[in-house]
Design goal:
The protein has helices spanning 22-48, 57-95, 123-130, 141-147, and strands at residues 106-108, 120-122. It is mostly helical.
Length: 166
Amino acid sequence: MESRKQRVPLKLPRSNGQKRGGRSAQIVFLVTVALVMTNLSALVDRVLHPDIPYFDTEHLVVGGITGLVSVLSFGLVLLYLRHLQGAVRTINTLEELLPICACCKKVLRAHEDPALLGSWQPIESFLTERTASRFSHGICPECMAKLYPEYPPQDAGAPRGPHRVA
C-alpha cells in the first residue's frame, strides 16, 4: 500500500492584491475596528452613566489609547498573516514534483525548455534560492566504499575527517 500525502490548502484572507479589493477590504476592516474600539468607552458610559458627556476628556484619552492599541494589534496580525501566506506559498512550491536529472541530479527551472543547457541548475542552488537552507557536502559510507575502495570503512565511534588516526 502506497500512502500519498494530500496537500491541504490553507485558506487565509488575501492581502497581496491577488483578489480585487482584498487590501482595501482589510483597510476598511481595520478602520472600523479602530472606530468601534475608540468609541467603546464613551458608548458604554452613554448607556450606564448618561450624565457624563460623550466628549468628556477622559473618554477622549481612553478612546485614543484604546484605538491606537487596537490599530497596532490588528496591523501586526495582518502583517503576520502576510508572512504566513508567503511561507505557505513556499511550502506548496517545494511540495510540487521537481523534474530532476537521474544522472547529475540537476533540477529543471520552472517554465524553461529542457533541451537548453542553462535551464538546469544544481539542486543545491535550487534549494538555497527558495529556502533558508545552506549546504555542506559529505560522503555517505556506500559512496565512500564505491569511490574510494582503498580506504577501509570507519567504525561508528571513530573520529572523522582530518582527526582520524590511520
